[in-house]
UniProtKB/TrEMBL annotation:
Name of the protein in its database record: Uncharacterized protein
Alphabetized UniProt keyword annotations: Membrane, Transmembrane, Transmembrane helix
Organism lineage string: Bacteria, Bacillati, Actinomycetota, Actinomycetes, Micromonosporales
Species of origin: Micromonospora matsumotoense
Transmembrane segments: 12-33, 45-65, 85-112, 124-145, 152-170, 203-221, 228-248
């Protein structure tokens, strides 16, 4: 323990500790959903933030591993009474402690922040633990590279290659083999549980690679094959093969089957229902959708109940209800929930994709209707081409717009809304 404390006090890893914390925290915070406190999002952000802190730790571990070569001190290790593996073990333990402490520190900070505002759910401790194991693997591989190639260029090269590999792997996210990487930005959904079999398989895969790297390091430092390192490597290869098979057999399915949701609903007419994890946004969403209902009441777009659902069409609202998607509780996203609802009932948006070139004027006209329903005309500020239509549309009043909307609903859904309907001539 005395030797470990001495190593820790004199290691560059301790000086880098605040930098590693800052890197991990900065990226994790960036990946948190705005204005929300959801455990699943917090866990995903924590695990994915190794994209930035991982290369730093890998380069730091490689730098520590090259210290012996830089100081020409290999003879001290060879003649030490504690054995040739004692000093490398202390160095490795130091960098692992710094990596683990930085990860846990950020996890605690974000966990407290989430706990203060979360309305449902709990942290996924298995997934958080696997993320920590992945960071230990990154440190171990970085240290091994430094020992195998003890050159001054090794640490920056290891850090750069790590970052490029992680970035390349993220571009292929969702493929079965992408989940074998220690850094994965995994898709999450509050409507589907995580595939814990895949996550556990990842954890075993990482542990096996750590053991394999340790075995290789022991053989290199001792200068020949030894029974214990060899057996460790054989066992690690067996576990790695089995765990990799588990991960690959999931075919990239990080999410499980949809869960039945006990919605939190408003007591208004229409009824607005959202996932409990977004419960704090119910009052504001209720106001937004009640405003929409006042505009479409008595028209074919009228509704009695809307439910928050993902954009996955495999999940459908209950009979008689409509759907909307909501990404966060920011004002922009809550306002955008109306646009998501309009997409779902075929009023412009995605329903008219592919027809814009042939019906450019109609597309622009339908966007005016969507802007009115969304209560957001900002996109038309400074649009001289839309002034005449907007002026006429404004003058007919709310009751007139509702009646006009009902008369022209079929044309709107068909993405064929002509200019003359904004003069009162085309819908007589």
């Amino acid at each position: 323990m005395i030797a470990f404390r001495h190593e820790l006090r004199h290691s560059v890893a301790l000086l880098a500790f605040p930098i590693v914390i800052f890197a991990h925290c900065a990226l994790a915070v960036q990946w948190l959903w705005p204005s929300t406190n959801i455990w699943l999002n917090m866990t995903s952000a924590m695990v994915g933030a190794s994209m930035l802190s991982g290369p730093l730790i890998a380069g730091l571990a490689a730098w520590i591993a090259t210290r012996e070569h830089r100081r020409n001190a290999a003879y001290l290790r060879m003649g030490a009474a504690r054995g040739v593996l004692a000093a490398p073990a202390l160095e490795w333990a130091t960098i692992v402690l710094v990596a683990a402490a930085s990860y846990v520190t950020v996890a605690v900070v974000l966990g407290v922040k989430t706990a203060l505002g979360a309305t449902a759910g709990a942290p996924n401790l298995v997934w958080l633990s696997v993320g920590l194991i992945a960071l230990v693997l990154i440190a171990t591989v970085g240290y091994l590279c430094g020992r195998l190639f003890p050159r001054v260029w090794t640490p920056p090269t290891v850090a750069l290659i790590s970052y490029l590999y992680f970035a390349w792997n993220l571009r292929h996210a969702g493929t079965p083999w992408s989940y074998l990487s220690p850094v994965t930005m995994q898709q999450v959904s509050i409507f589907r549980p995580m595939n814990n079999l895949l996550i556990v398989g990842q954890g075993l895969w990482y542990l096996a690679l750590i053991a394999l790297a340790a075995g290789i390091l022991a053989i290199v430092l001792k200068g020949g094959l030894r029974t214990a390192p060899l057996l460790t490597m054989i066992a690690a290869l067996i576990v790695a093969s089995v765990s990799a098979g588990v991960v690959l057999r999931q075919h990239g399915r990080i999410l499980g089957e949809p869960e039945k949701i006990a919605y939190r609903c408003s007591r208004t007419t229409p009824q607005i229902c959202i996932h409990p994890a977004f419960g704090d946004g119910l009052p504001r969403l209720t106001t937004i959708f009640v405003e929409l209902h006042e505009k479409v009441q008595g028209t074919p777009a009228d509704f009695v109940r809307v439910e928050q659902l993902p954009r996955d069409v495999a999940m459908q609202p209950r009979p008689g209800a409509n759907r909307f998607a909501l990404d966060s509780l920011s004002e922009a996203d809550m306002r955008g929930a109306v646009s998501e609802y309009l997409d779902g009932i075929g009023i412009g948006g995605f329903a008219c994709v592919g027809r814009q070139a042939a019906n450019g004027s109609s597309f622009a006209n339908i966007e005016i209707v969507r802007a009115w329903l969304s209560n957001d005309m900002r996109q038309f500020f400074g649009d001289d081409a839309a002034v005449a239509r907007l002026t006429w549309f404004t003058k007919i009043g709310e009751a007139g717009r509702r009646a006009w909307f009902a008369r022209n609903y079929a044309s709107i859904q068909a993405c064929r809304l002509s200019d003359n309907v904004f003069t009162g001539e085309g819908d007589r």
